[in-house]
Amino acid sequence: MSSGQQLSVEQVSVTAEQARPDARLRRGETVTWLLLAALAGAVLDQGGFYAGAQRVLGLALAAAVAVAMWSAARPVPRTWSVPAVTGFACAGWALLDGWLHGAPGSGVRPALLVVAAGAVIALCRWLDSDHRARLSTAVAMLGCLTGLLGWYGVASHSPAFALTGQGLWRAMGTLGYPNAAAAFLAVLLVGTVTRQVRNGSAHWPTALAGTALLVGLGATLSRGGLLATAAGLAALAALLGPRRVLAALWAPVLGAALALAGLLPGLAATAAPHPGLAAGTLAAGLVTGGWAPLAWHWLRSRMARLPLAFLGCLAVSLTGALLAATGAGSVLSSLRQARLTLSSADRVAAWQAVTDVIARHPVIGAGPGLRTFSWSDPHGGVLVFAYAHNEYLQVLAELGTIGLVLLLACLAALLRVLGRCRPRSAGGEAAAAAIAGLAVLCTSALFDFTGHFPAIVLTAAALVGCAEPAFRPRDSSPTS
Question: What is the pTM of this model?
């Protein structure tokens, strides 16, 4: 071979090497858009609760997996083998349990949800850090849209985005169920708070997003959602430090409280809506939540001894004056009686009914797809709930002790892997967000059937997938 031919061959090989990273980047962008399309389609179509949305979700995820498999494989740490094995065991047991009960197709839906969660984790781990950041930002914006639509439903009494329950309007956004909307927004909130911690409390876009998520979360009036949020934030405080979490939260909480105050006069089902007042307080709340940290840093640089408590007292005084002027005191009384209580007779009755099913089928359960929880009410009638409003009891009733043990083993394996991602060290905010997201999901599952909404489960799975350091496409070395 002549020297000219050798030079030509070397030029071609160098060009191919240079083109390979560009092709990987394009495929990464494609996978990011497909993941976003899958999550957005599920969120905007009632959380992916029904079969039509699940088919679209499955097609988008299958396409993303195909694109990722077309590219060169990334290194896979052995630490993920235990979660993968337990996840496949959960899916396999759901299929086998349905077959044992003479309904092989009944286990397909829970099995596919487990497989979809694993696929989302694997795809997010396959993405590089830039594409993960874009996906996280887009999903957070999707959550802000859902939360603000729920706020609009309450402010305008629109049945498309809110419903009435116990004499009050409650936001449900695009998920069709207030408690599901609250769980979805809470999962996104812990991710937003971790980004705020990483970027600094004065980073206004993240603070603005956190404020919008809190507004939507508060408008749902979900007790389970608030408890799940508290569990997630407590996990963040334990991992990142309470002072850092409070520094990221104080302004969004203050802004959300101001925005939600404008909803109170029209919150009762019998009251007339007050959209003008609600819109005004929403604007004031978003400005407060998004830009108060900047104003505080400006004031502190000029008046170092100005106490933060003064600003808080001023905001509380203005909010109280607003409530007094609009006559929202009677609504607060109704709100306290309906939502500010831990009692729930229907849930307690449903839990008692599901324990009867568990007592009859303790080992393998009554089979997937169980929808026969019934009990007698005090008036002699029969009440029927489609779900146990506790996912652990639901799994125990459907898949038995075997199914519940496998589910808990899978969650424990995920937490163990996330703990190895150094969530308490510098730069470990992504792992802390994933642990907090799982805390939100697991706490919400104690009070509702949020595990039946793929949008919630897969959003938490995306946080888990983004927990590890990404890999560079050129040298496959981890990035910080």
Answer: 0.88
